Amino acid sequence: SGSFDFGAYHTLDDINSELDHLVSEYSFVEKIQIGESYEKRPLYVLKFSTGGSNRPAIWLDAGIHSREWVTQASALWIANKIASDYGTDASITSLLDKMDLFLLPVANPDGFVYTHTSNRMWRKTRSKIPGSICVGVDPNRNWDAGFGEAGASGNSCSETYHGPYPNSEPEVKSIVDFVKSHGNIKAFVSIHSYSQLLLYPYGYTETPVPDQQELHEVSAKAVAALSSLYGTKYKYGSIITTIYRASGGTIDWTYNQGIKYSFTFELRDTGRYGFLLPAKQIVPTAEETWLALKVIMEHTRDNMY
Amino acid sequence: LETFVGHQVLRIKTKNEEEVKQLQLLESLEHLELDFWINPSATAVPVDVRIPAVSVQSVKAFLESQGIEYSILIEDLQDVLDKEKQDMAESAQRQR
């Protein structure tokens, strides 16, 4: 109906309905299913494509930690922004004329539903671990990059449990399979909250990535753009130097797959509510994040490799 | 539905590596059932931790005994969650 309130939090059903609505409104937007979660919920990706086959692409995902509701909400605002700006905004138009864009707004749907129905603080997947009373794996420790090393927990009851083996979580495996089969993804941005950071690899090792200087410069520009809107202060740098050692992380794997422009956001915590960000801050968060995302996407478009 | 009545979220600011190590020790104490929203890693980054009601006093006592600075980020988590739930319900009603 076009009445979707982007400034409010929504259930998974409402979000999926809005994805259908975007698809119905814009001919260059398509909803594709890349897999399903442990509890058999579909993993829906919006594909923004104005033509051509297997064009270079940019990947965005949100909500891999289910309780970080501002990320799923921001992803929806961003999806609508991309769709509505094509043809009117020169930057987005030129981007989509050259590249495809994939957006996964709810990367952990089981966890997301669980945050609505049982435990608002749930962060992990909902997979059952044989022999354990505890449920779920941290999907940002389950990737095949330094898997199981320091910076993740082997205790299945921990919030940072890495899982029994790399890609054990179907939510992770689905993205891995998609990225590999696509083969032409040039930028990968994973959106988390909170703590106001823009991070690039690595998290599992102190060894700097070969492209560190370029990634640092792009981060600086992106953060400057983000801060220009509401003055939100961001820090940026590699995961291990900026926050803490984290092994098995998403963007360490994507970088090792050859996706140079691999970043992860930690969105704002203005208001000191952490990932319990009040709904009135969804749109400002999305707006400022969008400015930084645009810098990363434009840099990718203009520095094709 | 799990409730979080009396759960507090503390923001802890460490001054040196020794204090970071003390927090890492705290993190390893599983019986406290702490949920670190931001893990202890470096002195530059504050640590946020959700503490179940039964562990609040123990954790505060630990921090104070070590001279580690903290502030209360969320006094009662359930209050925040109730407010959020109410906002969602109102928003859904408006849409209808």
Structure write-up:
The complex is a heterodimer of chains A (305) and B (96). By secondary structure, chain A is of the alpha/beta class. Chain A contains nine helices and eight strands. Chain A has helices at residues 12-25, 69-85, 90-98, 109-117, 170-182, 212-230, 239-242, 250-256, 282-302; strands at residues 29-36, 42-48, 57-62, 100-104, 185-193, 197-200, 235-238, 261-267. Chain A has an eight-stranded mixed β-sheet, with helices on both faces. The termini of chain A are far apart. Chain B has helices at residues 17-27, 53-66, 77-95, and strands at residues 8-13, 35-36, 47-51, 69-74. The model of chain B has no long low-confidence stretch (mean pLDDT 91). In chain B, 46% of the residues lie in helices and 20% in strands. Chain B contains three helices and four strands, in the order E-H-E-E-H-E-H. Chain B is an alpha+beta fold. Chain B is elongated, with a radius of gyration of 16 Å. Chain A binds chain B through residues 3-5, 7-10, 117-121, 155, 157, 159-160, 194-195, 242-245, 272-276, 278-279, and chain B through 1-2, 4, 9, 11, 30, 35-42, 45, 48, 50, 73-74, 77, 80-81, 83-84, 87-88, 91-92, 94-95.
Distance between the termini of chain B: 26 Å
Provide mean pLDDT of chain B, rounded: 91
SSE string of chain A, helices as H and strands as E: HEEEHHEHHEEHEHHEH
Q: In total, how many beta strands of chain A?
A: 8
How far is the N terminus from the C terminus of chain A? 41 Å
Main beta sheet of chain A, described?
Answer: 8 strands, mixed
Q: Rg of chain B, please?
A: 16 Å
Give the uncertain stretches of chain B in residue-range form: none
Query: How would you characterize the largest beta sheet of chain B?
Result: 4 strands, antiparallel
**Number of alpha- plus pi-helical segments of chain B:** 3
- Tell me the strand order in the biggest sheet of chain A: 1-2-4-3-5-8-6-7
- Please identify the structural class of chain B as seen in this structure: alpha+beta
Which strand-content bin applies to the residues of chain A?
15-25%
Q: Largest sheet of chain B, order of strands side by side?
A: 2-3-1-4
Low-confidence stretches of chain A: none
- Which value, in Å, is the CA radius of gyration of chain A? 18 Å
Summarize model confidence as the mean pLDDT of chain A. Answer: 96
